[in-house]
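Entry 12.
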Amino acid sequence: MTMVRKPRDFDAELKALEDKTRDLRKSKVQHLGELVIATGADALSAEELAGALIGLTETADTAKKEAWAKRGAVFFQGRSRRTASASDRNTSYAPAQSVSAQPSSGGTGAT
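Predicted 3D structure (tokens):
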């Protein structure tokens, strides 16, 4: 007796992969937005922020990149400690609230 294999539904698999890709992109955009807010960069104009990011991506100086990476690591370590102490005090911890609750450093970014 010969068993017949069930054919794969490539369309359904492709749709599932496309859905997963869309969800990952959406999550990435949300996390980047939260990072912009948490660092206070939301006080910059869109042009200033875009220009700074372009400059960062064009930088070939590895010493600068390493220094930025260390500074970023310190930022995240400090945030982790603040988050841990805040969650100890507040059992209904919500990450989005702690990010948006930080004061901005100057309004719209216009000087």
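Annotation: The CA atoms of residues 72 and 78 lie 10 Å apart. Residues 10-39 form the longest helix (30 residues).
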